[in-house]
Design goal:
This is Beta-defensin 19. By secondary structure, the protein is α+β, with helices and mostly antiparallel strands. 53% of the residues lie in helices and 22% in strands. The protein has a three-stranded antiparallel beta sheet.
């Protein structure tokens, strides 16, 4: 495999993986947002989100 094929494969897996996390959060009625934003406007849902985001159901 060339370097471009490896790079494409890595990016594809990265995007698909995060897409599934967003999908799981949406299925539970939430959005992947910043932790501080959720604390002021909603409740935390225990579903996966990428990196520093958390799954949150907005109450307002």
């Amino acid at each position: 495999m060339g370097i471009f094929q490896l790079l494409f494969h890595f990016i594809f897996l990265f995007v698909v993986g995060h897409g599934q996390e967003y999908h799981d959060c949406k299925n539970r009625g939430g959005d992947c947002i910043l932790h501080d934003t959720c604390l002021s406007t909603g409740e935390i849902i225990y579903a996966p989100c990428p990196r520093w985001l958390i799954c949150c159901r907005r109450l307002r």
